[in-house]
Amino acid sequence: MSVSVSTHVLDVEQGRPAAGVAVELYSGDQRVGGGATDGDGRISALASDLDPGVYRLVFAPSSPFFRRVELALALEDGHYHVPLLVSSFSCTTYRGS
Known about the structure:
mainly beta; Immunoglobulin-like; six-stranded mixed beta sheet; 10 strands; 0% helix
Protein backbone atom coordinates (compact mmCIF):
# COMPACT_ATOMS: atom_id res chain seq x y z
CA MET A 1 0.00 0.00 0.00
CA SER A 2 1.22 3.49 -0.81
CA VAL A 3 -0.16 6.99 -0.31
CA SER A 4 0.76 10.16 -2.20
CA VAL A 5 -0.44 13.74 -1.74
CA SER A 6 -0.54 16.83 -3.93
CA THR A 7 -2.11 20.25 -3.40
CA HIS A 8 -3.17 23.45 -5.12
CA VAL A 9 -3.80 26.83 -3.47
CA LEU A 10 -6.04 29.41 -5.11
CA ASP A 11 -6.42 33.03 -4.00
CA VAL A 12 -10.12 33.44 -4.82
CA GLU A 13 -10.09 37.09 -3.76
CA GLN A 14 -7.52 37.92 -6.46
CA GLY A 15 -8.84 35.30 -8.89
CA ARG A 16 -5.47 33.60 -9.39
CA PRO A 17 -3.22 30.83 -8.10
CA ALA A 18 -1.42 31.56 -4.84
CA ALA A 19 2.32 31.24 -5.44
CA GLY A 20 4.85 30.87 -2.64
CA VAL A 21 2.48 29.43 -0.02
CA ALA A 22 4.32 27.21 2.47
CA VAL A 23 2.68 23.79 2.90
CA GLU A 24 3.76 21.00 5.25
CA LEU A 25 2.52 17.45 5.75
CA TYR A 26 2.91 15.71 9.13
CA SER A 27 2.43 12.21 10.44
CA GLY A 28 2.10 12.79 14.18
CA ASP A 29 4.87 15.28 14.97
CA GLN A 30 7.10 14.12 12.10
CA ARG A 31 7.24 16.26 8.95
CA VAL A 32 6.95 13.89 5.98
CA GLY A 33 6.58 16.40 3.16
CA GLY A 34 6.50 20.06 2.36
CA GLY A 35 7.40 22.88 0.07
CA ALA A 36 6.07 26.09 -1.41
CA THR A 37 3.49 26.40 -4.16
CA ASP A 38 4.81 27.20 -7.63
CA GLY A 39 3.61 29.96 -9.98
CA ASP A 40 0.50 27.92 -10.73
CA GLY A 41 -0.25 27.54 -6.99
CA ARG A 42 0.63 23.83 -7.05
CA ILE A 43 2.82 21.32 -5.31
CA SER A 44 2.41 18.26 -7.49
CA ALA A 45 4.50 15.92 -5.35
CA LEU A 46 4.05 17.10 -1.77
CA ALA A 47 4.69 13.58 -0.49
CA SER A 48 4.72 10.04 -1.84
CA ASP A 49 5.38 6.49 -0.72
CA LEU A 50 3.61 7.08 2.60
CA ASP A 51 1.83 4.49 4.71
CA PRO A 52 -1.94 4.80 5.15
CA GLY A 53 -2.90 6.70 8.31
CA VAL A 54 -3.88 10.06 9.73
CA TYR A 55 -1.90 13.07 8.54
CA ARG A 56 -1.97 16.82 9.14
CA LEU A 57 -1.77 19.12 6.13
CA VAL A 58 -0.73 22.64 7.19
CA PHE A 59 -0.99 25.70 4.91
CA ALA A 60 0.45 29.17 5.64
CA PRO A 61 -1.47 31.39 3.19
CA SER A 62 -0.75 35.10 2.75
CA SER A 63 -4.34 35.98 3.67
CA PRO A 64 -4.60 38.96 6.04
CA PHE A 65 -6.91 36.87 8.26
CA PHE A 66 -6.09 33.19 7.75
CA ARG A 67 -2.46 32.76 8.80
CA ARG A 68 -2.57 28.98 9.27
CA VAL A 69 -5.01 26.42 7.91
CA GLU A 70 -4.60 22.89 9.25
CA LEU A 71 -6.47 19.80 8.08
CA ALA A 72 -6.49 16.34 9.65
CA LEU A 73 -6.80 13.72 6.91
CA ALA A 74 -7.39 9.96 7.09
CA LEU A 75 -5.51 8.67 4.05
CA GLU A 76 -5.82 5.15 2.70
CA ASP A 77 -4.05 3.60 -0.28
CA GLY A 78 -3.91 5.84 -3.36
CA HIS A 79 -3.32 9.43 -4.46
CA TYR A 80 -4.98 12.41 -2.76
CA HIS A 81 -5.20 15.93 -4.18
CA VAL A 82 -6.27 18.43 -1.51
CA PRO A 83 -6.75 22.01 -2.79
CA LEU A 84 -7.22 25.10 -0.62
CA LEU A 85 -9.26 28.10 -1.76
CA VAL A 86 -8.56 31.16 0.38
CA SER A 87 -9.41 34.86 0.63
CA SER A 88 -9.50 37.50 3.36
CA PHE A 89 -12.99 36.35 4.31
CA SER A 90 -13.13 32.59 3.86
CA CYS A 91 -11.29 29.39 3.15
CA THR A 92 -12.48 26.03 1.94
CA THR A 93 -11.02 22.76 0.82
CA TYR A 94 -12.16 19.59 -0.88
CA ARG A 95 -10.87 16.23 -1.98
CA GLY A 96 -9.84 16.70 -5.58
CA SER A 97 -8.84 14.22 -8.23
